Amino acid sequence: MLDKVNPHSLRNLIAITVVIFGIALVVAGTAIWKLRVDAIANAERDSGNLATVFAEQTEQSVEAIDAALIELNELLTQRDSRSDRFAIFRQS
């Protein structure tokens, strides 16, 4: 029955198989490339969000330090100018 295999049919089968595998590789490569592009876009967005949060927190910290220094300055200027301004920092 199958004693004779047509070599032309075998070549066609191999060619079709190669084409199908080639198409599958292109599709897989395209999907991987799209996932890569999406991951980069997400990372850029997340980096921007983190930068915004860090900037806001830094601003709040600087404002708190500034308020504390202003309060300390007011406390020291209210004291009598003849007294020792740094006496509160020394323990006798």
Topology, element by element:
Elements: H1 7-78
General description of the model:
By secondary structure, the chain is mainly α. The protein is 78% helix and 0% strand. The protein contains one helix and no strands. It has one helix at residues 7-78. The chain is rod-shaped.
In short:
The protein is mainly alpha-helical and 92 residues long. It is built from 1 helix and no strands.
List keywords for this structure.
92 residues, mainly alpha, rod-shaped
The secondary-structure class comes to mainly alpha
Rg to the nearest angstrom?
38 Å
Mean pLDDT: 87
Strand content: under 5%
SSE run: H
Low-confidence segments, given as residue ranges, are none
Helix content: over 70%
Strand elements, count: 0
Which descriptor suits the 3D outline? rod-shaped
The largest sheet, given as strand count, sense and whether it forms a barrel, is: none
Give the end-to-end Cα distance, rounded to a whole number of Å: 115 Å
Number of helices: 1
